[in-house]
Q: What sequence folds into this?
């Protein structure tokens, strides 16, 4: 009898410890991933851009001199006030780019890409802060999943700001790339014409699973499952449903996939199933030697030419 009690209490202790580990670990993972304490702001990003790209300070100074960068806001379906910036082309044009930043970044992170579209290609540009980033409201980071609906609202605003016959390319980097792909699987308005994904992940599940192995050496079970369920309970979405892979499979519009061959943050291997799942028309460019989100920084002329060539087929 005494031996049975010891076994029972041992088993019970193991179960209790497992539950504590799972619940505590889930809250830690959710807070770590979706409520980051450090996020970029305009001042920090502007300084970083100026130090990396020689063209940035003269260009942004010229824009600021004539007050060409405008603030704007929208209210989304959840009542969140979302911030954005826009730059109108100096010449009348229907061409518009919506540029989507990455994880813990802000809209100004995409200013070097705005330079391509605005300065080089003569587009109007709209740069939104995603939920819980920059000056936008938000309960937590949504990793692009809830943001996909917001981007459709931003596109509607762009069509009003820049003329009712605007033609839009949506271009995102990293989490912004995943957001771009998630948008692509929705029912789209006629003014969205094509997409550019730069180093986006296949799904939030795949990306988080990869990261907890890389950062903490942990397997998917049980934390990925319990954390995904907790995310669903707290924020209304799960890691598995937030799938760029499933969304691109529904996309009939053109998409350019860009990914660095040396990406070890969103591993390069993720781009291949995304490209395979996407119906035609589509293009892929693997940038040799480029780490995560560095394809433009390290290959500026080639990147500009690739984007110009691709978008030029679908936006006139």
A:
């Amino acid at each position: 009898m005494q031996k049975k009690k010891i076994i029972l209490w041992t088993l019970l202790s193991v179960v209790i410890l497992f539950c504590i580990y799972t619940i505590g670990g889930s809250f830690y993972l959710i807070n770590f991933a979706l409520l980051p304490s450090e996020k970029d702001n305009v001042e920090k990003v502007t300084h970083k851009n100026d130090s990396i790209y020689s063209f940035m300070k003269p260009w942004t100074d010229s824009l600021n001199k004539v007050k060409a960068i405008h603030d704007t806001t929208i209210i989304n379906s959840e009542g969140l006030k979302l911030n954005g910036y826009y730059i109108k082309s100096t010449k009348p044009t229907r061409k518009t780019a919506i540029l989507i930043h990455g994880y813990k970044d802000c809209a100004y992170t995409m200013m070097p890409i705005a330079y391509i579209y605005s300065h080089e290609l003569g587009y109007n540009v709209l740069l939104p802060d995603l939920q819980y980033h920059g000056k936008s409201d938000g309960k937590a980071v949504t990793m692009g999943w809830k943001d996909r609906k917001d981007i459709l609202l931003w596109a509607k605003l762009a069509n009003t700001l820049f003329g009712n016959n605007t033609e839009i390319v949506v271009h995102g980097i990293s989490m912004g790339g995943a957001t771009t792909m998630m948008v692509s699987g929705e029912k789209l308005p006629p003014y969205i014409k094509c997409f550019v994904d730069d180093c986006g992940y296949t799904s939030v599940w795949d990306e988080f699973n990869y990261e907890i192995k890389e950062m903490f050496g942990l397997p998917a079970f049980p934390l990925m499952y319990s954390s995904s369920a907790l995310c669903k309970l707290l924020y209304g979405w799960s890691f598995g449903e937030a799938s760029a892979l499933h969304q691109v499979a529904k996309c009939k519009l053109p998409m350019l996939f860009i990914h660095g061959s040396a990406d070890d943050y969103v591993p390069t291997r993720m781009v291949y199933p995304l490209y395979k799942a996407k119906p035609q028309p589509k293009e892929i460019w693997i940038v040799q030697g480029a780490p995560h989100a560095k394809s433009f920084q390290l290959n500026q002329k080639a990147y500009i030419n690739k984007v110009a060539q691709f978008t030029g087929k679908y936006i006139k």
